[in-house]
């Protein structure tokens, strides 16, 4: 494994309620279960760490019960936090409602992760061979977007920078988004997020326009497209739609994060992009068969899964990607 994953994102505490269906306006539901778990960027970091990459966190955690909970979760996964905790506030939280069809709905409240300055990021250094990641959530916050964008632009040219715009991409001011995309090495998003950036179209057109008009330095674009798995287009114009795997999904929360973390980890150890995308599809497929956002598998589990898939069917035949949205 070459280098670390330096994650400059936001981690929050998830309060997860499992319900049969979303409540109608003005009504009430009783959840079948409840859990408090580390969420947000933590899920992506766990996926990269469990598949063999050293991960460090350069975002902001709070001082309070949520921040303490997250620090304990980071420590349990061997993820080092580079920055001191915020003295002004606790970490934020997110209420996640998971329905019986494995879909999820979120309501979030920002905390310390929404404020990030260059002074706060002073302890974060990037070494040769490191990979850097951030998400649209951190760029959506008025208290962090300017400092983080400037920091990203100042990265050494040889440092790969991975960006996930996330579902709140429309909340990122367009000038900020354009500056970050201009420095992006790998963009990973779903089809809705891709269309928000580049306009309507099928995944092949969207990927081509993202590379040509928005990500001039990118090595490639990954568009996660639900039943079609994921589509990868490289800077040289080669592309491939890589089928997912048919699984019995019980919880899709964190599946996209798992996909990105596994993909970056595979790339960092030299796996070719299309093969890395299939590896990420497998990681996400395994994750949705488990409850909890940070349900990413280990490299050994992914390799076993892929070996079994290869033994029973050819890649791309009669498979549905429930995991990559």
Summarize the model shown:
The protein is α/β, with parallel strands linked by helices and 325 residues long. It contains ten helices and 13 strands. The protein has one domain: UDP-N-acetylmuramoyl-L-alanine:D-glutamate ligase, CATH 3.40.1190.20.
Any overview of this molecule?
- The protein is α/β, with parallel strands linked by helices.
- It has helices at about 40-50, 65-75, 135-140, 145-155, 175-180, 190-200, 205-215, 255-270, 275-285, 300-310, and strands at about 5, 10-20, 35-40, 55, 80, 95-100, 105-110, 130-135, 160-165, 185-190, 220-225, 230-235, 240.
- Helices cover about 35% and strands about 20% of the residues.
- Strand 9, helix 5 and strand 10 form a beta-alpha-beta unit.
- The longest helix is centred in the C-terminal third of the chain and has 15 residues, at about 275-285.
- Residues about 315-325 have low confidence and may be disordered.
Give the radius of gyration. Answer: 19 Å
Sketch the topology as an H/E string, one letter per element.
EEEHEHEEEEHHEHEHHEEEHHH
Q: How many distinct folded domains? A: 1
Portion in beta strands: 15-25%
The helix content, as a percent range, equals 25-40%
Give the mean pLDDT.
Answer: 92
In CATH, the topology is named UDP-N-acetylmuramoyl-L-alanine:D-glutamate ligase
**Could you give the count of β-strands?**
13
What is the overall shape? Answer: globular
| Major β-sheet annotation | 9 strands, mixed
For the biggest β-sheet, the strand order reads 5-4-1-8-9-10-11-12-13
Counting H and I runs of at least 4 residues, what is the number of helices?
10
Tell me what the CATH architecture is.
Answer: 3-Layer(aba) Sandwich
The end-to-end span amounts to 27 Å
What is the C-level CATH assignment? Alpha Beta
Can you identify the CATH superfamily? Answer: Ribokinase
- Low-pLDDT stretches: 315-325
Organism: Mesorhizobium intechi
Domain Carbohydrate kinase PfkB: 5-295
Region (Disordered): 291-325
Keywords: Kinase, Transferase
């Amino acid at each position: 494994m070459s280098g670390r994953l330096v994650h400059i994102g936001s981690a929050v505490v998830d309060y997860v309620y499992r319900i049969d269906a979303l409540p109608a306006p003005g009504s009430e539901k009783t959840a079948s279960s409840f859990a408090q778990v580390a969420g947000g960027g933590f899920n992506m970091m766990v996926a990269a760490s469990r598949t063999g990459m050293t991960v460090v966190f350069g975002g902001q955690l709070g001082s309070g019960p949520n921040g303490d909970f997250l620090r304990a979760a980071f420590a349990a996964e061997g993820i080092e936090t580079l920055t001191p905790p915020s003295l002004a506030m606790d970490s934020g939280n997110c209420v996640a409602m998971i329905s019986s069809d494995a879909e999820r709905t979120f309501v979030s409240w920002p905390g310390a992760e929404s404020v990030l300055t260059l002074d706060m990021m002073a302890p974060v250094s990037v070494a040769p061979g490191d990979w850097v990641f951030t998400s649209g959530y951190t760029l959506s916050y008025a208290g962090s977007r300017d400092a983080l964008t400037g920091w990203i632009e100042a990265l050494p040219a040889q440092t790969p920078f991975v960006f996930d715009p996330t579902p709140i991409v429309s909340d990122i001011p367009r000038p900020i988004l354009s500056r970050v995309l201009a420095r992006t090495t790998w963009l990973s998003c779903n089809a809705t997020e891709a269309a928000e950036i580049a306009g309507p179209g099928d995944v092949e057109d969207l990927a081509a326009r993202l590379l040509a008009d928005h990500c001039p330095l990118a090595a490639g674009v990954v568009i996660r497209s639900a039943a079609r798995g994921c589509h990868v287009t490289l800077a040289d114009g080669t592309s491939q739609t890589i089928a997912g795997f048919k699984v019995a999904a019980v919880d899709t929360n964190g599946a996209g994060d798992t996909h990105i973390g596994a993909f970056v980890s595979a790339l960092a150890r030299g796996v070719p992009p299309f093969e890395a995308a299939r590896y990420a599809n497998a990681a996400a497929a395994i994750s949705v068969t488990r409850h909890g956002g940070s349900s990413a598998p280990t490299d050994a589990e992914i390799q076993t899964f892929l070996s079994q898939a290869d033994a029973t069917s050819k890649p791309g035949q009669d498979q549905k990607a429930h995991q990559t949205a």
